[in-house]
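Hi R.,

Here's the chain you asked about this morning:
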Amino acid sequence: MTITLTIVNADMLPKGAPAFYRATRHGFHIGRDQQLDWTLPDPSRRISGRHCEIRFENGGYYLYDRSTNGVFLNGSSERMRSPFRLSDGDRLAIGSYIVRVAVEGDPAGHTLSEFAPSAHGRDPAPKDAEGRGTGSPDRPLRREPAFVVQTDQAEARDAAASAACEARDIRRDEAARYVTGAGSGQPTAEAFVDAFCRGAGIAPEMLAARDQNVLAEEIGEFVKLTVEHLGELLRARATAKAMVKSSNRTMIGRQDNNPLKFVPSPPEVIEAMFAGRRSGYLDARASLEEAFGDLKQHETATYTAMQKALARLLDPLAPEVIETKAQGSAFTSSKARAWDLFVQRWGERNAGENGMLDAFLAYFSEAYDEATGKK
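And the predicted structure, written out as tokens:
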């Protein structure tokens, strides 16, 4: 039995990082640490050094969560309980990465559409007669070289060929529609331009002098460029939220998913938005409206959170506040007491691993969640 874990939003990975991991009948570790079987780069440190462990037990693969921030299953907003048996079609959220599970030869396999997005709805790990889990956290994993990373040139060529075939199929379908419409009362290209002008809110006469084939290609390039850069902005937003450890997370669900957030490449995003071939995704208009709304909210919340976080960080260190709190005595001068109080408060805020930055990011995260309506 083989398990393959694939990062759906692989463009969030640094160049050269493995986008999938495969194992056959043995376990492995996943996390930020370099010495693990599958290392997931994460500058924001949302992913733990040793985030989770996959074990092959009793004919199945079981996930054990070892992390601080959790593993989330199939769009659930609650971290999954472990141990948990993985099945074909599951999707895991690990930090900012969405990981698709494929299990070959799994008799209990299913697809994502067969169940609601719950973190607690399936088979826990098998237990012995006394109710204990059969797996021991201290049992060393058997390491075998039975894994594949996405740096193999043959894999890359196969993926490119598959994408090219899919693109040719789409173009062939489009060409068939043009031929079908050629016998109607109005030329298809002209009808396309008229429909575009109606949607754009402009008069068709404004584009009458343009070569319609060239215009259609330019519109396609514009859509592709918009999708590509809008997706980059949304990924930058997700990275920023992960960096400050915001609890306001965007999780994939069974329906109303935004392809700009979860579909990896611009051509696939355009297909999801316009072709209507993928269930569970928003159409083009709803996707763009949600994306621009999220970006606008993110920008406003960022500046609001920065102001509040700086105020919480610095206000208690203001001289007038220190002077008010410091009270001298017969043995200690007011200035000495004020200095001691300042040093104490500074030390409290500087105690984290990254010093004052940790305190600022904690305050920022709270203020950001408040500004975005996350309670």
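Residues 109-172, 174-184 have pLDDT under 50 and may be disordered.

Let me know if you need anything else.
M.
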